[in-house]
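Go through this:
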Amino acid sequence: MDYRNILKASNESVAERYALSRDRILQIGLSASDALTPEQNTYFSKVALFLSKCMDLYRMVEEGRLAGMMEEELMEENREYYRDILPENYETSYANPAYAVAVLGEEYGRILSFLYTELRSLRVFCFEQDLNKLTILNELFLEIYGLFDSRDVSYWKIKDSIYWFLHDNAPLFLGWRVRELVDPGLDFAVSIVMESDLTDLRYLYAYGEYISDNERKMAEFLNSLPQEEIDRIAFTFTDGYREGFALKGVDLSRRETVNIRYNIGFERIVRAAVLQFKEMGLKSVIHRSAYNTLNKRQNIRIGYVSTNPNDQYDYDHRFDDAIYFDKRMMERKLSCMRNAYEDYEAEAAGYAGPAVIEVFGDKPFEPVAKKEAYRLSDRQQTLSVDYSTLSNTLMNEFINQEERSFTIIAYPMPSIGPQFPEIFEAINRVNTLDKGKYRDIQQTMIDLLDQADYVKIMGRGRNMTNLTVRLIDLEDPEKQTKFENCLADVNIPVGEVFTSPKLKGTSGLLHVTEVFLEGLCYKDLRLYFEDGKITDYSCGNFEDPEEGRHFIKENLLFHHDTLPIGEFAIGTNTTAYVVAGKYDIMGKLPILIAEKMGPHLAVGDTCYSYTEDVRVYNPDGKEIIARDNECSILRKEDPKKAYFNCHTDITIPYEELGRIVAGITSPTGWDGKNTERVEIPIILDGRFVLDGTMELNKAFGGE
C-alpha cells in the first residue's frame, strides 16, 4: 500500500469540512472586518491569500498539473512560495517575529508570527496530498481569526486555542512521525527517487521543498558521472553500514528497514544505495525533516532536506514551543509516541538504523539573537531536558539499540565555490583512504595510550587550551584496550582513536578560535571543566557576554546546566586537513570530517550510549572496555542521570595545537614503592612525533 492509499480514508472523512474552511478563507482574503485594526486586517488578509494559494496547489498536485509544467514554471512556483522568507524579503515578513511585533504590537505579534510559520507547513500536505492535516490547520486559522472578529480576543485566548489544537491533534502529528521512521509503506520520497527520470531535473520539485541552485547543480553534476562511479560512491556508504553490524556481531538479516537521510540533489547516489541495501535484505524508509512544531527539535533538521532558504528564519522559531510546552503537554506527547510505537511495534523491531549523507559548503551561519523570538522559561528548559531523556528511553524500548547501527558520510555541495568538482573528487578520495594503513598507525598510538594514566592537551598561538584527560585503568592489558581503532565503517572517513575518559581528574580549558557545530558558528569558544563536567563557558559571537552564554546553553548544552565529557579522541586524517587547507574550506567542513583533523572532545553522552553492555573489539582482538563513565554507569539505577541525549564533537585543528602527551606513571626502585611520571609526546606543534605515526606528516608535504 502506497502513501496515497494510506491517506485516502482520512482525506474522504474531512472533505466537507475542508470545503467549508476553503470558502470561509477565501472570504477573509477578499474583505476586511470592522472588528480588526487595519494592521490586523492586513495580516489576516495576507495569510488567507497565502492559504488560498496552498489550496490551489493541493488541487494542482491532485490533478497532476505540476507534472506537465516546464522546469522554468516549476522553478518560479517554488521561488514564489518561499519568496516571503528569503533573506532579501525577511525583514518585512510576518514570519519574522521582530517585524510582526513592530507591526502588530507586543501582545499579538510574536504569537501571530508563530501561527503564520506553522501554517507554512501546509506545502508539505499539498505535495503529500494529506487533506486531513491541511483542513485542521485551516480551521486553526479560522478559530483565531474568529477571536479577533468577535472582539473577544486576548493573547491568552490565542495561546489557549493553539495549546488545545496541538494537544488534541498530537496523536496525528506525533503518530505520523513515528510511522514515517519505520514504515516503508510511506513511500512518498522513495517513489521520487526510484521512479523519476533523474536526467529531467523537474523531479527535484516533486518533494515540495525549497530548490536552489545548489540542488540543481548537484543533480547536474551527479548526472555527469558514469554509473560505475555512482555505484562506487554508494558502496562506500552502504558497505560501511554493513560493516557496522559485522563489528557489533549483530545479524543484519534480522533487520528489515534502513532510514536514508540526504540532501535533495543526491538522488542518483540514493537510488544506487536503495538497490544495494535491497541486496542486503533491507527496505528503504525516507522521510522529510520535521515540519510541525510538536516534532521539531530546535532548528536541527533530521530527514531529507534541501538548502535552507533562510537559517535566521529557523533560528528565530527554534523555541516556539515556549507557547505551549508544559508538563501536561510533555506527558501528552510521550503518551502519543508510546501509542504509535505500540501500533507499529513490528516495524520498529525491524528498524536497522539511519544511513546519513551529510552535506557542506554553505557559509557558516552566525545568528542574530532577537528579543522578539520566543525562549523557553527555566521551568520549560528543565522539562525539555526531561522530555529528551524520556522520549529517547521510549524509542529505545521499541528499537533495540544493541541490535541497530548506522553510517554517516559527507560530501560538498556546489555552494562551496567554483572549484566544487575538484573538491568533490578530493573529498571522495578522503572518504576512501586505505583503512589498513590507518589501522596499523593508529594501533601504534593505542599501544602507548593503553599504558597512560592521562593525556595532556595544550594549544598554541591564539589557542589557550590547557586540559588534562584522565584515562580508565586496564585490568588485563593483554586482552583489554582503552581506545577504539576507528576505521571508517559507520563513521566515514577513517582517522581517529577514541575513548570514554574517566571524569574524575579530567580538568582544564578547551578553547577553539572558531568551530562549526550543528549548523552554527561559534567564535572563541571556551569550555571549562572540573572532574569531567562543564563548570563555565563563553564565546565571542555577541557583544553581550550574557547573550553568548544563552547561545551556548541553548544550542550546545541543550538546556542542561552542565554536560560531561563523553569522548576524547585524536584525529589522524592529515590528508583531510591538507585538502581543507588547499581549498580554504576549513570553516565549512562538517564535524564528521573536522573531528578527524585533530584532537577532539565530545560533550554529552559517550559513543556507546544505550549500548554499553555490548562487547566491542578492535582489529587486534582486544576488547574496548572504556564504554562507560561515572555518569553513564548510573543507567542501572537512574537513566535520567545517566544520559543527556546529545553528543557534540569539538575539534582543535592541528594549526592551533601545541602538544599532546601521554602521561605514564610507573614504579621505580627495587621495591616498586616510588614512582616516576613520564610524558611521551604524540603531537608537537601540530605534527605527529611518536614513532610509527610520523608517516601521517607526509600529507603536510614530506615532513
Summary: The longest strand covers residues 502-517. The chain has three domains: 3-153, 188-408, 434-698. The chain has 23 helices and 19 strands. The radius of gyration is 26 Å.
